[in-house]
Amino acid sequence: MKADGMTSHNFPTEEDRRVVWEGRPAWGEYVFLWFFALISAVRALFIFFLPVGDPGTGAIYGLGAGLFIGLALFLRRTSRYAVTRAAVHRAAGFLGRDEKIIPLQKIAAAGAEQGPLDRLFGIGTVVLNLKGGEQAERLRGIRDPEVVCRKIEALL
């Protein structure tokens, strides 16, 4: 076995495929969808329970709230992250599966970014700075991004 953890034929070993961490974007990543769903639901409730509008309009607002909630569920369900001993995996999409595998040998450092709203919801973005000046990869909506960064840094 070579020093980089790969066999002489460059096939990943069972130890290389072992998952160190895996997750999905946190629910807080879709706060804008939840906000629009709440607004639509409140407008629908006002129309149905107070005589302030047409019931057809209330139904449209109710449908809109359902669509926003459904979109948040769909986006979360179709996004997945995993860290193995050999690479960081990012998969997204339902039909046109977009999967990216970033080998640990290409990662120079890992860091966390959190804006004020991210801190409020306890989420952030894990930024993978790549060697050779390549564009950094981002894992968005991660709960406790500092913990994930430490796990990646320990593998580098």
Automatic annotation (TrEMBL):
Pfam families on file: bPH_2
Alphabetical keyword list: Membrane, Transmembrane, Transmembrane helix
All residue ranges annotated as the YdbS-like PH domain in the record: 77-147
Highest taxon of source: Bacteria
Keyword flag Transmembrane: yes
Parts of the chain that traverse the membrane: 31-52, 58-75
Tagged with keyword Membrane: yes
Name of the protein described by the UniProt record: PH domain-containing protein
